[in-house]
Each structure stands twice: as structure tokens, then as C-alpha cells.
Amino acid sequence: MNYAKRFRVEPGSKVDLSRVDASFKDRHESHTQALPEIERDRDRLRELQYRMYAEGKRSLLICLQGRDAAGKDGTIKHVLGAMNPQGCRVTGFKVPSAEEAGHDFLWRYHKAAPARGQVAIFNRSHYEDVLVVRVHDLVSKTVWSKRYAQINAFERMLHENGTHILKFYLHIDPEEQLARFKQRLDDPARHWKISDGDYAERPYWDEYTAAFEDALSQCSTDQAPWFIIPANHKWFRNLAIARIVAETLESLDMRFPEPSVDIAEIRKKYHALVDAEGQGGRSEPGEHHHKGQ
Predict the structure, then answer these.
(1) Per residue in 45-65, is it b (16+ CB within 10 Å) or e — as a string?
(2) What string of DSSP letters covers 210-265?
(3) Which class would CATH give 3-251?
(4) What is the pTM of this model?
(5) What percent of the chain has pLDDT over 70?
(6) For a 10 Å CB count at each end of the chain, is N or C smaller?
């Protein structure tokens, strides 16, 4: 199955999350069955990220959105953790600091956008500014309703400057969220993840649904598509996202840059070193003798 085509929100379409099966798992019956495919895609991610880093011309921005306990941290750990940290940065966005609140709402997100050759992962993103602020009336409708167009313009600007954007909404149902809350309560090693906010937001389920649906409908574009990922099964979530990211990177046809030196000359120097060491013996590490010492 083409997961990108299946889960992509087509530009101009109207999203109805009640029609999306959060427990969808394609042909797979278990994590064990899906694991070989997940590992193959993780290997592809690792290689393709290396190509992006080496080429240094383009970048990738991955945005993860979802309700509390939807699996944003798990996606980063089990899927995107395959990437080399040297070329990848994760930024989590919480309540804005005083400095951040003193700027336009996109300022802190633009600062965290990836440089060429880099991958940036947003754990929550600029979409918080059309979600929580709307649900809790932190700004007026006049303000947040303008932000869809501002977000689209921001993402278009990033794309035109070489940043490819993938946005994933991790879709779980109310029963699954409650089950995950219980798992956290039952596991002392996960107590640190529990917050009052998780329970404070639960009564606003329908309000968040409406806010998510509007954001997904108004801000899925050709240059920055949204994907609604069924996430009740964590392993299927991982499989779908790994596949979509890997296939997107492959489509960029990235190439390693031409060497900046004459490889034939370097090869000669290498063999000269090997011959010299063979005649004079190999120095131990650190035993480099310089003239005058």
C-alpha cells in the first residue's frame, strides 16, 4: 500500500476525523510481523539522511502533532531516532517564554527551522497557535483565523528555500488515550510523563477535534502536506511514518558531491604512506616525530 497516498490530506479537502479509523493496521497483525519492514525503512532513513547531510543543498522539516499520549515522543525514539544526531535536531515547543511571547507567533519556530543538509523535528509545532489558543480563547477568533494563511505563507517560504516539509497528525481515539494514561500510571518509570494538563485537556476533546480538522483542512498544501496517521497501534504508526519519510527522501534523488581533491593523487599519497610504513615500521599512535623535537 502507498501510505503517502492513503494518509495524505489532499489540498482543499475537508477533514472529518470521525471517518478515519485510528486502529487501521493494513495487512499486518502484530508488531512482530511489521518489524522487518520498519527496520528496512529505518536503514533507508539512515542512508538517505547521510546523503542529505553530504549534499548540503536541501533540508527536511518534520512536524508531529497529536493529542496527549498520541505517540510523538515514541515516534521520535523508534523511527526518527535512526538518524544521525549530528545532522538532526529535535525541538519541543511548550508554553512560550516571555521573550518568545514578545515576538510574532512564528518567530520561535523559524529559529528552529533546519539549515541546508539538516533535518529538524518539531515535537508539537506552529500549529499549537491555531489549536490550544483557539480552544482556550487565549486569542480572539479574528487573530487565530488569520494564522492559517500566515502558516501557509511561512511554509511556502521555507519550501522555496530548499526545505521539504512533512506534517504528521497522530490519530488516536478516546479509548486509546485513556488506556495510555493507565499505562503511565501503572509504570513507575513513566510517572515523570504524567501531568495535570493531560487530564485538564481531556474534557475539551470535541473542541480540539474541530480545531485539528480546520488546521488539517486549511493547511495541507502540495509543498507542505499533512498526513493523518492511524496511531492506536504504535507499531503501525512507526511503520507508516518511516515509510513516508523514506520515500519522500528517495524522491529527492540526492547525490553525493564531487570530491574537492584529486582522488588519483590522494591514492598515490596513500600508497606512498603504506610503503613508507612498511619499510620503516609502524609508529604507535601518538608517536609522531617532528623536526626539531
Answers:
(1) beebbbbbbeeeebbbbbbbb
(2) HHHHHHHHHS--SSS-EEEEE-SSHHHHHHHHHHHHHHHHHHT---PPPPSS-HHH
(3) alpha beta
(4) 0.91
(5) 95
(6) C
